Task: structure prediction
Amino acid sequence: MNSTSSSWQHALANAFTDVDSLCQYLKIQPEQLSVLRNFPTFPLKVPLEFAALMEIGNPEDPLLRQVLPIQPELEDHQGFVADPVGDLPAVANDGVIHKYQARVLLITTGACAINCRYCFRRNFPYSDLQLSSRKTQQAIDYITANPEITEVILSGGDPLLLSDDKLNALLQTLNTIPHLQRIRIHSRIPVVLPSRITPSLLALLKNSRCPVLMVLHCNHAREISSQLAEACKQLRQHGIVLLNQSVLLKGVNDNAHVLCELSEQLFTLGVMPYYLHQLDKAKGVAHFEVDDQTALDLYEIIKRRLPGYLVPKLVREKAGAPYKLNLY
Ligand SMILES: *Cc1c(COP(=O)(O)O)cnc(C)c1O
Ligand code: SF4
Result:
C-alpha cells in the first residue's frame, strides 16, 4: 500500500480473488459446491468486508451463493443470452444510455467492488472501460443540449469506485447544467465495501447543487452490517436520499420471510425499498431464475404482510420498453 491509498482502496486491493482462499476462510470444502476455479472473464471478487458477513461452514449461505462461481454457470439455457437488456452496444460507444424520458444513465466505470454471479455484466469483460475525458465531455454536451433531461444516473460498474477527485469533478460539471434537478448514484459499494463512505466522499456529495439520491443494492438482511448502518446514517446526515434495489434470486432471497425482513431492516437504516427486479436473462445465470408465478405468489404474501411503503415494485426490464415493467 503506498502512502496515498486510503483504507478502502487497500481493502479493495486485498479482496478475495480465488475460490480456494475464500472457501478456506469460510471453512467449507470447494468440492461440495462444484466450484469453478478458473473464470478469467468474470473472476471471483469479494471484499473481506462482505465475506465477513457470510456464515462460517455454511456452503448454502445466501451471500456466498451470490459470489461463488459454480458449474451451472457454464450451462446453456434457452432464452439466456449475452446482452438481455440491449444496453451494451451503447455502453461501449459513448457511456451514455438514454433509454427513458427525462433521465439518462452514465456508465462512469466498468469495474465493481464485487462480482455478482447473477449480473448481466458478467459476459462483457469491460472492467477497463472508463469514462474518458473526451467521453465525459460528449456526455455533458449531450445532456446540456437536451433540456428535457432533469436527472442523471451515475452507474457502471460502480460509480463509487471513482476516486473522490474524479467524482467531484464530474458532480461539479453536472451541477453547472441549469436544467438538471437531481443526481442519482446506483451503487452496491455501501453494502459490500462500506469503508468507501469516507468523510471526504460525504463532503463532496453534500456540496452538490442538485440533490443526490443513492440507490443501494442489497438482496438479503444478512448483508446489513453495523458498518453499513453507520454509512447510511452519515449519508442521510449529509442530505442523501437512500433507496434500495434488489434482484429476486433463487436460493438467496426467494422467500417471503427473507424479503420482508430485508425491507424492515432497511427501514431501520432510513433506506426505502424501491425495486425488486426479476432477473435479467444473461447467459450463465439460469440457476438464479425465479419463475414469474413463484415471484407473484411471494409478492402477494409480502403485500399482505408489509405496509405499502415497505413493498418494493416488482419489475422486469424489457428491451425497448419505456420504463421497467410491473410484473403484476
Ligand atoms: C433502470 C434504468 C433507469 C432508471 O429507471 P427508473 O425507473 O427511473 O429508476 C434509467 N436508465 C436505464 C438505462 C435503466 O436501465
Ligand atoms: S453491477 Fe451491481 S450486480 Fe453487477 S457485479 Fe457490479 S455490483 Fe454486482
